[in-house]
Write a structure and sequence with these properties.
alpha+beta, 8-stranded antiparallel beta sheet, 3-stranded antiparallel beta sheet
Length: 185
C-alpha cells in the first residue's frame, strides 16, 4: 500500500498533515498516488484560506498493511501551491469532513475513513454549516482525484487496528463542520 503525506502550512494551529492511502504496491504506483493526493487539494484551491499552502512530501512510503511497517520509500516529483480563497477564515478547529465508506465489515463494524479539510472560509458557510458550493467542491475534488488513484491501486482506508487496507467504494461530505481532536488549540 502507498501512503502519501501532504503538509498544510501558513494558518494558525498548523502545520496540518493530510495522509492518504492507495492500494498500490509497486514503485510505478508512487507517482500517481502523489498526483492523486495533490489533485484533490488543488481542486479546492479557491475554497480554502489564501494564507495556507500545500507542500506535498517528495517521498511516498510503501507500507506493508499486515504490519504497518514501511517497506520502501519512493521519491516522486511534487509541486506545492498556495490556496486562493478570499475572506475571513473560520476558527482553526472548524473543518470540513469527507467521509469514506468501504462496505467492508470487521467484527460487525464497517471500516470507514475520514479526510478533514482545514482552512475553510466564512464565505463557504450557510447558516453556520458548510455551503452547498463547498460540499459540491469537496465531492468534485475527490472525484477528480480518482483517475490517478486508479493508476495507484485505488483509494483505500487503512485500519491500523486490524492491519488491513480496504478499498473506498463511496464518499460523502458531512453537512456539519467537524473537529479533529488533535487539531484543537
Amino acid at each position: 500500500m502507498m501512503r502519501v503525506t501532504n503538509e498544510l502550512t501558513g494558518v494558525p494551529g498548523g502545520p496540518y498533515y493530510s495522509v492518504q492511502h492507495y492500494g498500490g504496491d509497486t514503485s510505478g504506483e508512487a507517482q500517481p498516488a502523489a498526483d492523486s493526493s495533490r489533485d484533490f487539494w488543488f481542486q479546492l484551491q479557491n475554497f480554502l484560506d489564501s494564507r495556507m499552502s500545500l507542500s506535498p512530501l517528495s517521498e511516498v512510503e510503501q507500507v506493508d498493511p499486515a504490519t504497518g511497517l514501511i517497506t520502501a520509500v519512493h521519491t516522486v516529483s511534487t509541486l506545492g501551491f498556495t490556496f486562493a480563497g478570499a475572506g475571513e477564515a473560520l476558527p482553526t478547529v472548524t473543518q470540513a469532513l469527507l467521509r469514506l465508506r468501504t462496505g467492508d465489515y470487521v467484527n460487525g463494524r464497517e471500516v470507514r475513513g475520514r479526510k478533514f479539510i482545514p482552512g475553510v472560509l466564512e464565505s463557504s458557510t450557510t447558516a453556520g454549516r458548510p455551503s452547498v458550493a463547498l460540499l459540491n467542491a469537496i465531492n468534485g475534488a475527490w472525484d477528480a482525484s480518482i483517475p490517478e488513484a486508479e493508476a495507484a491501486g485505488e483509494h483505500v482506508v487503512y485500519s491500523e487496528t486490524h492491519h488491513e487496507a480496504h478499498f473506498v467504494t463511496s464518499r460523502s461530505t458531512w453537512t456539519e463542520f467537524a473537529i479533529l481532536r488533535s487539531r484543537r488549540d
